[in-house]
Amino acid sequence: MGESAPRERLLEDFSRLREEFEQGNVARHIDALVSLPVTNQQLHVLGFLVVGGPRRASEVARLLDVSGATVSGLLDRLEAAGLVERTVAPEDGRGRLAAATPTGIDVVRQLTAASVPPLVEVIDRVNDADLAAFVQGLRAFLAAFREAWQEGTLTGGGGGARVG
User: Are 57 and 102 in the same domain?
Assistant: First the structure.
């Protein structure tokens, strides 16, 4: 148990600190969510289009596990709001692709920005040694995240549909 005990303590500390960090950011996230000009389902569709690029309605329906008619209605409302545009699919000239507009991308970015605590606003309060350790750890964490994403092994986070 020698070497694993310090790691277990670090993981427990990390979990506790992460929860405390997230609690401090919940209000910002909720404020951003309720101020968005879209419903939760519309946000799901918009998120898939922002992350995965242009898609056919049938693919969005499959990803959301809803009917084509439901997605069609969602896309109609998003298009009317200027958040999505639909174009003829170049590969067959018949189907249509839905894509997020720059305004639609901004809506998703607003929510994403609210999900991340204002690190830039607090970074000046951290001394140089702690900042260097944080940056080193963040690099390692990001590398592990990218590896897990590429392998498709990330779980959790609300549905798990892989759009990339």
Answer: yes
State if pTM tops 0.85.
no
- The rounded distance, in Å, linking the Cα atoms of 60 and 64 is 6
The predicted-structure confidence for 88-105, as pLDDT tens digits, reads as follows 988 877 789 999 999 999
Q: Is residue 159 part of a domain?
A: no
- Give residue 64's domain range: 36-117
Shared domain for 135 and 123, answered yes or no, is yes
92: region left, alpha or beta (phi > 0 left; psi from -120 to 50 alpha): alpha
Which of 70-74, 112-116, 127-131 bottoms out in mean pLDDT, i.e. has the lowest?
112-116
pLDDT value of residue 21: 78
∠ CA 64-105-66, nearest 5°, is: 10
Spatial separation of the C-alpha atoms in residues 149 and 119, rounded to whole Å: 24
Is 62 in the same domain as 92? yes
